[in-house]
Amino acid sequence: MTSTDAPRVDRLMAMMGARPGPVEPGRTEHTQEVGPRFHDHRGRTILGSIGILVDAVPGGAVGRSVPAGTQTVLSQVTAALAAPLPDRGDIVARGNAVHLDLDTGIGLAAGDLTGPDGQSYAVLTARAVVVTRGATHADTVFGGPALPVPDTEPGTDPAEFADRSGLDVVTAIASGAVARGPLAGLFGVDLAEVGPGRVVGTFTPRTWMANYLGTVQGGNLIAVSDLMTGLAAQTLTAPGQHYRALDLRIDFVRSPALDGGPVRVRAEVVRAGRRLALIDTETVDSSGIVLARAQSSVHLL
User: CATH homologous superfamily of domain 162-301?
Assistant: First the structure.
């Protein structure tokens, strides 16, 4: 994407229900409607529900501030949440390129997530790097046929969790006794290991997850990392206790290949106090190469 591009439809964003707003060099805006299709197993909207939006908006802002023919990708995204995201309704995401040094190949973007009425949900920062890879999938991602919307998996009535510990709930999800929820179903996340303060899962990249470089768009990794972070936090909770992520910082080390096979995601509690837990989440490919690392603070309510 460059500053000279005319606005084009990003098929992945369109599939997620995001609608483009005003676009100009160095600035992007999209609005995404959230609802049951993007809920976790608790029936709630989490940062992972809009992970693709969180990546694309600041990334697009930097991408539209570079010369034609220059490609950029995000190397890091941080989201600090001000308030819980709404379970239904519109979320407006805005991104602005605030710094770009073509000599070093590093750019910085800032952004925010708000409601239509201006209510603040989160503040975003992102770092981008210039890459030499060609935009091999640009015509497909921005001009191909519309992506089919995946079927939504059913959730579970949250009332069923009221008398169960979080570890019991997450263990039941791993065994299939409790539905993994629509968001995990969308990304095909399966739990392989569950223990106190630790969960391990896998998902397999699919063609619809592609970015314009022909690899997996980073927002997919935000979505799965945040989802797994929440499940690790839930293993710490007592019956009737809740949790919510306060922030997420993710470093993209290497873009997963679309045909690289299953990807492994491990989320582990580093420290847990009475109110806050710190959780590290690591994503690796089938050969053990690190693809992304995330750190989150979670509020135990």
Answer: Hotdog Thioesterase (3.10.129.10)
